[in-house]
């Protein structure tokens, strides 16, 4: 698993610091001081061959001479010594190391590669190099050179920048915000963002995860981990380099539109991560998510003593997609009874500038009791009439009483005290009430909670591997692309493009190729006979944008006009592009759909995330208008609709004035088809349909171009080589007959299977649960079951088996690959009342078959020695069985594939 041995690094029982120096101002001395100041409770040792003691702490001259085997080794030694120190630590039994040292280099032959090889010999995990270190308040460990140690709390921070991590600690210290862990990952030699997302997603102390990202190395692994984490808790990211987009020249419109930052945006959207624009917003998001759970809706009630600031908050709420809560009649009456007659009578609830602590308390109690809102924002503008600190104390008292009465799902309460003293912010923070400098920040904080709930709901939807609404002619399409590649071409010609679109049932204007004017006239006459006028377009592999050379002539009505236009197009193109290969002109019928919208749809190739689907407003000025949205495939109709809705042009798809609405889902279905095309034929490296005309009759592609090239496998494992998100693997669905004619249906697990897992566990005895989980299990939390059901199929797979007669879930088998995708760890659980009927054998064979198809080299697992039935089955399947060298009541089983 990618979390392999991470608990040893992030919650160690013993630590050794190697390279500490007595020199003040050195990194090693700073880390030594921080470890001591944090009062780490486990064993601690100091290694330095040059000094017998440092600041009163005795040293040893090598890791081997420590009196204990350190779980974690923190390295601040010179870069040239790191690989040797890791080898020494591995021999001593260390589980991993934090490499704070910089200067190890990158790539083949580097010091970093030597360090990685040394670690792999012993199964050690590495954090860094070139990092700030780690801070784990829960175990009183500050193995970093940060100026401060955060208090314990419920936020995890994963940062590619040590400075950002240190800044977050300083901010948190001022706001009484605590952390479950802070990890600076540096150069990510081994442990990366995805590994830590996996770890903190399953950490019960962590309620939300914050990310600072500069670049992603393994997009499929990141997407898998991010989607799994975001399903169970909020994940928030700030990404640097937002404006460094579109630097490279792009051959297609979609390639130009798919700038690097726009693709990251699409990836975060698909992963269910909340993106914020800067550190201030990240801090505010941390303030919210570290203290509150998401509300059931997006209706916010606002309580204030200043009408103007209340209206500003309502305006911002509407802009961000929230809803101003309506006061229920009962609440209205209750407020009338306790407020002066001049109160606002609506939301925002303005209780007038002379409001004192008692008035705030009574109004807040009424709003908290009102079922018409999902959260309450309390704001105070300081006056000379009522003391702001007394009002803050009254508000915290009401909130604490309310939470005590509503322990399960209390409403979120947020606060803004304009211009307040720091002491008031501390009162609110200590009461667990997130508080902000402005109404804008507070409303954004509330909407972060809303967005998290929405992305969790969206992540529960699983796109199918093949949309059922259409059946493309994949073989015909693949032959077109293969023939062009064999011809050493990087573009399909217009006739091939039309055939490709036909294969995927995407309506396109009939297109004919003409080598000269007379051939163009012949095709034009056939079009004239059908009552249409003619369009001519230059046909050249080297001229991508035809209008740049005057290569498009519209609305031709006679043979003479066609003849003349053909001659002029060819002459003009040869003059402007003398080196271009020109094969003639395209002849098309002139399409007149007066009320159609011009759209652009296409595929682009991103170096990090692979294929990206692009949608937006089309036409020749597409880059200038820049009204576009991106999504990572695969897509289903719901995901395609969401992509469309993120653009301004989506509003034009609805009916307005005398213009009918575009045919429902006609555009979305084309996006689904393009995503499927990209999955089937990864050699398609770029595709534009511009414009796609859309109206009440449907859609029609007027012009299209396709870039092709050899497949570059960007991601490990099976599935489309160019997809960062793997489709739901429906090809693994099976109907199987077990013993005595018992028929079961087996398929990959889905997120919506969680209730079925809970139901199945009711039929598993405590004894069998202990055999499976190595401990008595009385309750199973949502987070625990989510670990089973909410997979991304990139690094993990689980199959669920159903009794075909009763449709009850009867068994689950799963496998999770290690961080380098070489071996996988399996686990299996059956209903106790159905054991002995051959289901376990069938599921084990299936998971072995799956592991082989993924290219894994081995399957392993841990089995209690008393679980003789499982051990016997493992031996029958060819597993090697050995007693664990440390825990003798456990057997390690391994099958080489």
Automatic annotation (TrEMBL):
CDD domains assigned: NAT_SF
Keyword tags: ATP-binding, Ligase, Nucleotide-binding, Transferase, Tricarboxylic acid cycle
**Record-annotated N-acetyltransferase domain positions:** 744-897
Q: Gene3D superfamilies, per this entry?
A: 3.40.630.30, ATP-grasp fold, A domain, ATP-grasp fold, B domain, NAD(P)-binding Rossmann-like Domain, Succinyl-CoA synthetase domains
SMART domains registered for this protein in UniProt: CoA_binding (SM00881)
Record-linked PROSITE patterns: GNAT
InterPro entries to which the protein is assigned, alphabetical? Acyl-CoA_Synth/Transferase, Acyl_CoA_acyltransferase, ATP_grasp_subdomain_1, CoA-bd, GNAT_dom, Ligase_CoA_dom, NAD(P)-bd_dom_sf, Succ_CoA_lig_flav_dom
Q: Which GO terms describe its biological process?
A: tricarboxylic acid cycle
Alphabetized PANTHER family for the sequence: 3-HYDROXYPROPIONATE--COA LIGASE [ADP-FORMING] (PTHR43334:SF1), ACETATE--COA LIGASE [ADP-FORMING] (PTHR43334)
**Family the UniProt entry places it in:** In the N-terminal section; belongs to the acetate CoA ligase alpha subunit family.
Designated name of the protein = GCN5 family acetyltransferase
Q: Which organism is it from?
A: Bradyrhizobium jicamae
Lineage of source species: Bacteria, Pseudomonadati, Pseudomonadota, Alphaproteobacteria, Hyphomicrobiales
